[in-house]
Amino acid sequence: MINKLVIIGVGLIGGSFALALREAGLVREVVGVGRSAENLSAALGMYVIDRYTEAAQAVQGADVVLLAVPVGQMGPMMAAIAPHLAPHTIVSDVGSTKQDVVALARANLPQHLAQFVPGHPIAGAEQSGVKAADGHLFRERNVVLTPLPETNPAARELIAKLWQGCGAKVSEMAPALHDEVFAAVSHLPHLLAFGLVDYIAAQPNAEALFGFAASGFRDFTRIAGSHPEMWRDICLANRGALLQQISGYEAELARIRQLIEQGDGVALAKLFEHARDARQKLLKNP
């Protein structure tokens, strides 16, 4: 049980975290911080938060502060709250990139690194905002923590226990490895979905194309409904690893194109079978 939790960025992830902890009986008071009074009022009405105020005032005396803003806003927000953090306050985040967040913490929270626990919940939805918040969002989902060498073990343990209280499976990973892994299995797929929808939307007959789009197209492009600002920041923050994955995917597309041009149905079927088998194995071992 923690007495005071501050959610900075009361949207899908931050709101779901608060709801899950409430349902688990692990928090007494939740204070919200955000840019939109309308969204914060909705959070209040949904009992996601108990009250809201500006960041510097909100974090005073907090037990845990969760930074649930796009990674592009992390630095300024860390700088804004740094002078007002109590020595015992644990700060964590939910950013989809970790090396940049760690660097921002070193620059903006140099006196508070022992109480900083970077994290990344591997859960989400194509909707954004607090109205999409769900107290069950993290059940049986992975949460990756990337603690610093300076991170206090007690702080790391508390954040892990809070995520476990949300129903999540917690693991740890080095920040660099995290960014490499998620460039391939998260950032690249989002980029491809956004790119395909943008490509189709730019066609002269886009309305007709979308009119005939069936479940395959909708399934593949579902994540193109995600928060544009957040994904812009993720792509730029993890550009090195993401560019490597784009190059690899371009090579794969070139190989597929060559097989089609050559009419090599045997090799094309073999490639498709390999991909199908890999996906079926993934579904059996979520």
**Number of E-type strands:** 9
| Quaternary | single chain
Taking the sheet with the most strands, its summary is: 6 strands, parallel
Any idea what the shape is? globular
Radius of gyration: 21 Å
Series of H and E elements: EHEHEHEHEHEEEHEHHHHHH
Low-pLDDT sequence parts: none
Which bin fits the share of residues in helices? 40-55%
Q: Decide which structural class fits the backbone.
A: alpha/beta
Query: What count of helical segments does DSSP give?
Result: 12
| Proportion of residues in β-strands | 5-15%
For the largest sheet, list the strands in their spatial order.
3-2-1-4-5-6
Spatial separation of the terminal alpha carbons = 30 Å
Question: What is the overall pLDDT average?
Answer: 95
Task: Set out the fold topology.
Layout: E1 2-8, H1 12-24, E2 27-33, H2 37-45, E3 51-52, H3 55-58, E4 64-67, H4 74-81, E5 90-93, H5 99-108, E6 116-117, E7 119-121, E8 142-145, H6 153-165, E9 169-172, H7 175-201, H8 206-211, H9 215-221, H10 228-237, H11 239-262, H12 265-284
Parallel strand pairs: 1-2, 1-4, 2-3, 4-5, 5-6, 8-9
Antiparallel strand pairs: 7-8
Q: What would you say this structure looks like, in words?
A:
A 6-stranded parallel beta sheet has the order 3-2-1-4-5-6. Strands 7-8-9 form a 3-stranded mixed beta sheet, with helices on one face. It is an alpha/beta fold and about 290 residues long. It contains 12 helices and 9 strands. β2, α2 and β3 form a beta-alpha-beta unit. About 55% of the residues lie in helices and about 15% in strands.
